[in-house]
Amino acid sequence: MTGRIKLFTIIAAVIVISVVLSVSVKAYANDKKGREYREAIERSEAEYIKDVREYLNDYGFKNAGVNLTKEYDKDRNVTYKLVVNHHSFEYASDSKIRNMENCFYEKADEYLKGNLETEFSF
Predict the structure, then answer these.
(1) How far apart are CA 63 and CA 110, in angstroms?
(2) Domain 2-121 classification at class level
(3) According to the model, what pLDDT value does residue 118 have?
(4) Domains of the chain: which residue ranges?
(5) For a disulfide at 64, which of 7, 56, 80, 118, Cβ 3.0-4.6 Å?
(6) What pLDDT is recorded for position 11?
(7) What secondary structure does DSSP assign to 26-55, as a single string?
(8) Distances (CA, A) of 114 to 19, 34, 51, 76
(9) Under a CB-based contact definition with an 8 Å cutoff, are residues 62 and 56 in contact?
(10) Cβ count within 10 A of residue 99
(11) Largest CA distance in the chain
(12) Cβ–Cβ under 8 Å, residues 107 and 52
């Protein structure tokens, strides 16, 4: 009888260890995939900001302040807010601001996974 209890204990321990290791490996793999996904998103956001800065420089707004923030709702959908600051925006025409805004939205479709709101300040 004692032999059966020892055998049962050993088999139970092996099963428990196998389950724990299996869960740990899956958790590690999921965490690695999540980290890689987050890094890819961060690279896309950085590229977007870089393109916006280049566009502003080419459009005559050198050294403009560019800030991109993001906010998640309860369903984990993301909304980005792009705030662009330059002293010359005060004198820019509405059509010039709209053209820039449209360009930023087009670039957002290329780089960002979420909605975009824009704000221009001077």
Answers:
(1) 24
(2) alpha beta
(3) 95
(4) 2-121
(5) 56
(6) 80
(7) HHHHHHHHHHHHHHHHHHHHHHHHHHHHHH
(8) 38, 18, 17, 10
(9) yes
(10) 13
(11) 93
(12) yes
pLDDT of 80: 97
Instruction: Name the residue with tokens 């389950």.
Output: 19
Residue 71: strand, helix, or coil: strand
Structure tokens at 107: 């670039």
Residues whose CB is less than 8 angstroms from the CB of residue 79 and which lie 6 or more positions away in sequence, other chains included: 70, 71, 73, 114, 115, 116, 117
The rounded distance, in Å, linking the Cα atoms of 57 and 91 is 17
Percentage above 90 pLDDT, the chain = 62
For residue 82, the tally of other CB atoms under 10 A from its CB is 22
Question: Which residues in the chain show pLDDT less than 50?
Answer: none
Q: In this predicted structure, what is the pLDDT of residue 27?
A: 55
